Amino acid sequence: MNDYRYDHQTVQGFILSSIFWGVVGLLIGLLISVQLWAPAANFAPYLTYGRLRAVHTNGLAFGLGVGAIFGLSYWIVMRLCKRPLLFPKLARVQLWLFNAGIAAAAVSLMAGYTQSLEYAELEWPLDVAIVVLWVMFAVNVFGTIVKRNEEQMYVALWYVIATVIAVAVLYLVNNLAMPSGFTKSYHVFAGVNSANVQWWYGHNAVGFVFTTPILAMFYYFLPKSTGLPIFSHRLSIVAFWSLIFAYLWTGAHHLVYTPLPDWIQTLAIVFTIFLIAPSWGSVVNGYYTVGQDWTKMRSNYLTKFFVLGITFYGLQTVQGPTQGLRVVSQLIHYTDWVPGHVHMGTMGWVTMVTAASIYYVIPKIYGTTVYSEKIANVHFWLVLVGQLLFSITMWITGIRQGWMWKATDAEGKLVYRNFIDTVAGNYPYWHTRTLAGIIFVVGMLFFVYNVLKTIQKGRALEAQATPPASAAITAV
Amino acid sequence: MAGKIYSKPIAFSVLATVAILVGTIVTMAYPMLRADMHPKVDGLAPLPALELAGRDLYQREGCVNCHTQTVRPLGSEVVRYKGNRAEEPNARYSLAGEFAYDHPFLWGSKRTGPDLAFEGWLKSAAWQYAHFENPQQIVPKSNMPSYAFLARSPVDAPQTQANMRALRRLGVPYTDADIAGAPAALAGKTELDAMVAYTVSLGKAVDRGGKGGLEIDLAEPNPVATDVAAVKRGKELFDAQGCSACHGEEAEGVEGVAPSLVDDTFLAVAGDLPDAAYFGIIKAGSDVKGQLGRPGLADGGMQPYGGELSDGDIWAIVAWLRNQKAHEAAEGHGGGHE
Do residues A416 and A422 make contact, with C-beta atoms less than 8 angstroms apart? Predict the structure, then answer.
């Protein structure tokens, strides 16, 4: 057919892989949500909450998230460079290594091999594999961009480049460890320093896995699917540079009131507040882009995914900085508020935009349309309701518990002295969270079904268009 | 000029790298060069082999997903974790210097269960064993999974030695003798032994025990001994303070966790002591047992409640305990003891 065919199969491979790991990660998420209110659901040592939580977060961040980022970034790079990937075979090897790596990661975490660093749990042999994967990705992205057939690099490419660079720096530094065997190592940094490096990493892993590559998708797929040009190029420029500059200062807002030196905490809080500006630069740009023709919300089924996605990004980037403030942090830090916040970003922003981008790409590969817009709409409403119910429930119970921890009487004595009394009230909210999770997962299953049916439809069309050689001969 | 950068991928990438590195250097790399990132409290020692093995298990089981290890300098938090017993004002919350050998830090980010930074000052080893085996038996509404399976596996001594060597390469001052002695220290120990040893070591690098600070006068009478309202309030306080978690619903004791408060033994020695002894232990914890001439359990798990309860409250609890004991005796349970 054309030069792109092989690369498109690779892109589709990444998308299908990411969907597969996404379903695994979501189902584990449901199980650990049940374990929070039913300790008997910790069926065996390798299925305890303590081990599975990392399988949930890694499965979704690296399996669903990074898998989709690999595939969709390649799509964006090819389109914006007007050429196929520079190293198509390398991308295919990367696809297989990615799947082997995620499978090994899941097994190793269930076995209890962990560095105990959030979002960097994987032990050093897997870290090496991830570095290799990332180098493969970087070589293909940079190679293809250098050999591009389009003079200007569009905004989406800036975000892809920033992602490749930042994740490399973050991952390499925070995973520096001293091995004591194949399955065990120790962070080379100790104590407060270990904490500071980890949260510099942890916060920016969110920034450069859940923000910049998703913004790349947003800036590329929103105009492509609606036909509306991005409202302001100037705003895109300002937002991009200020975002990638400011993000790296903010990690220590995760360590407010810990023994970390105050000046680092304060600096982080200040930059966190500043970060609202570049984040909202993209939010405003998104709204004004769709604002050129709001009827797209009705006439184009993908528009609402992008608009709601950027809305949750906007809420997330105001809520996050608010949480960094000391007065707020002392109430909500360590409570369920925080998972409520994180899940708005992942379920609302990341998944909405990623799913819409996949809905756009898969039919394009086959030159067809999505299997069912109606199913896509059902998917949309279910994930929206599931995510809102999840986040709002967690915010309420987080404030409730944070307040109970702090409540003292006139003499300074605790009102709720027994910690368990502050936990017991969480149970109804944790039940609701599981319900919200089920609604969300059912929504995602509609999405998976729709994607698979679209591929089936595309393959049938391909088979019609290019009948087997023998059939062609008989026809003549 | 500005527009050209978007058609020069190499220059663009260099500029993006610089943008990313500025904050990285100021907030992450530069602090490493400063002394305030590498403090160490006086007398901090590396964890002995058994406690280190416990810490490795704490990591393996992902305890950090539900338990933090930093007491913040907030009034309510200091009171909750009893940092207010410390004489040094700044020892009332977690100190940077306590974590100098923590590779990595295990402060966590979520308190589904309580903070454990001062756990060594709060609970006895006996409590920890019973709680790991079956959390709901000790804390009925708890959502913590059972870790009884740890009792079925021995500690991996060669791995622990390898871990000590790796930590030594990172600057943790283990001696050759420490490492050579590990197999002997770990002989016959289960993973549960290691986990408990680590748990009861938490926060012990800094003195937060308080000095007892109480002279017990055993002749001091209970001012509310015969006050019916006080007895009723004593029971309410007993429940509200969670005393039953260790001593049982009716203060009858929990096997292997904490003793009965209504029998004729006191601190494991036959023969009861007067009300003032109960008052002293509730108010100032196990630290005062030396004054009573009774050793009790080696690790003496009773924590002081003087921070939460007024003297009147404590006397009310003692009044209820005495009333409860009298009931037990009257119902014939204690008949044989008298």
Answer: yes
